[in-house]
Specification:
By secondary structure, the chain is mainly alpha-helical. It has one domain: Formate dehydrogenase/DMSO reductase fold.
Length: 429
């Protein structure tokens, strides 16, 4: 009798969950919007090109060659995209380690952005591999070198995606109403954050370390033995600039989903992030100057490459840094958003300079991406945006958690000091 009751309960719950999930798959809002129409066209075109790539090989849709094996799909989708996802490890460090509760309302959307970025950019990495099935080699131990930087990055990618999923999983449990699972997953958050921060600091610099082996192939203005440090420092303001930029869009697109605390404190959050961006950009700028002087690279400034280098350093590092400083000083959030956009463009330019533009700068026939490579990259970006929108419209990402989850948080956080507890309640409840 007990077994029958248990079986009936399991069947009933399974049916309930299936009905709930199918109902959640239904679109919310209008289908025929400009964004949806453009996204559908780009996704269909991208899917066709991906099929062609896997049937006929990389040469059918790309300009990649033995001379230039890394192109747009690596330079932008992976190397630039990972820098943009840096906001997740920076913000979780600020909230869970430094206990800066002011930024807690945007932790989930930042972690979600980071998680989706890694998932989709890891997927884009498969497009660039001549034999994509060999991507599993570092995991199963099939002819890999444990001293290879690629081995390090591959394991960090996999483990960091797992850590970010654990950090984000309480929101999934709240969406599904799984109270016991929510309690267990919530208890794992701090450990996942510490583990994720460790992995991020290593693989952000690890991506830069990949180019240490290309000393004779990268233009001297962009090559130095400090590339790993420069990549790591730039990932801090790149990630936070992406948080500011995406947050400005989310603040309008998902306004109906915003929690009261986020609506009230949004400008203060933006200015706080802008202050951190300005500080790290000053550090990055002076590091670049020190590397330049130490390397005795004055002679290159008189060349066209020197002008291009100054265009990147002044136009997309120093100027947005000054804009961030001005925005913080005079409390101008709109200026901080413009500065974040300029910073993101600068990160794109820097990563593409290192991986593509200034790579084999002396070659008579240089690599240029085909329109098909650009189309597939846009398809990856649009796919990520659609998944992000679907999740935010259904799960408590920007909105308040359900009441039972908030009560659970109150019970857990009563263990902290009374003054800190009252501040915590103001920012989260």
């Amino acid at each position: 009798m007990n077994k029958q009751n248990g079986r009936a309960l399991l069947v009933g719950e399974s049916r309930r969950f299936l009905r709930f999930f199918l109902n959640e798959l239904k679109p919310k809002g209008k289908l025929l919007t400009p964004f949806n129409i453009i996204a559908a066209a780009v996704l269909v075109l991208g899917a066709v090109l991906i099929v062609i790539r896997f049937i006929y090989g990389l040469g059918a849709v790309t300009n990649l060659s033995q001379e230039f094996p890394w192109g747009l799909w690596i330079g932008f989708d992976v190397i630039t995209g990972v820098a943009f996802a840096g906001g997740a490890y920076v913000l979780t460090f600020m909230v869970y380690i430094l206990r800066l509760e002011k930024y807690k309302p945007i932790v989930r959307i930042t972690v979600l952005n980071g998680f989706l970025a890694y998932v989709f950019y890891a997927g884009a990495l498969l497009l660039d591999l001549g034999r994509p099935w060999n991507v599993i080699n570092p995991i199963i131990g099939n002819s890999f070198g444990v001293s290879s930087v690629m081995f390090l990055v591959a394991w960090h990618f996999m483990l960091y995606m797992m850590a970010e999923f654990i950090e984000f999983s309480p929101a999934v449990a709240e969406w599904l109403g799984w109270k016991r699972a929510r309690k267990i997953l919530g208890s794992l958050t701090l450990g996942a954050v510490i583990f994720g921060i460790t992995l991020s600091t290593l693989h952000q610099s690890g991506l830069g370390a990949l180019f240490l082996m290309a000393r004779n192939k990268i233009h001297p203005l962009w090559y130095s033995e400090f590339i790993p440090i420069l990549f790591f420092v730039s990932s801090i303001f790149a990630g936070l600039s992406m948080v500011i930029f995406e947050g400005s869009i989310s603040h309008k697109v998902f306004r109906h989903r915003l929690s009261p605390g986020l609506r009230t404190n949004y400008d203060d959050i933006v200015l706080g992030l802008a202050k951190i961006c300005a500080g790290t950009m000053y550090v990055y700028f002076f590091l670049e100057i020190l590397v330049f002087i130490h390397g005795q690279k004055w002679g290159y400034l008189a060349t066209s490459w020197g002008a291009w280098y100054l265009f990147e350093l002044i136009g997309f590092v120093l100027i947005p840094c000054l804009l961030f400083t001005h925005a913080v000083r005079y409390e101008r959030t709109r200026l901080a958003r413009y500065a974040s956009l300029l910073t993101l463009l600068g990160i794109v330019l820097n990563r593409l300079n290192v991986s593509i533009i200034a790579f084999k700068w002396y070659a008579p026939n240089h690599y240029l991406p085909t329109w098909m490579e650009v189309a597939v990259t846009l398809a990856v970006v649009f796919a990520e945006l659609i998944v992000l929108r679907w999740i935010v419209n259904r799960m408590p990402i920007l909105s308040e958690p359900p009441l039972w989850a908030r009560k659970e948080k109150v019970a857990v956080n009563k263990s902290i000091k009374p003054k800190e507890y009252e501040e915590w309640k103001v920012t989260t409840m």
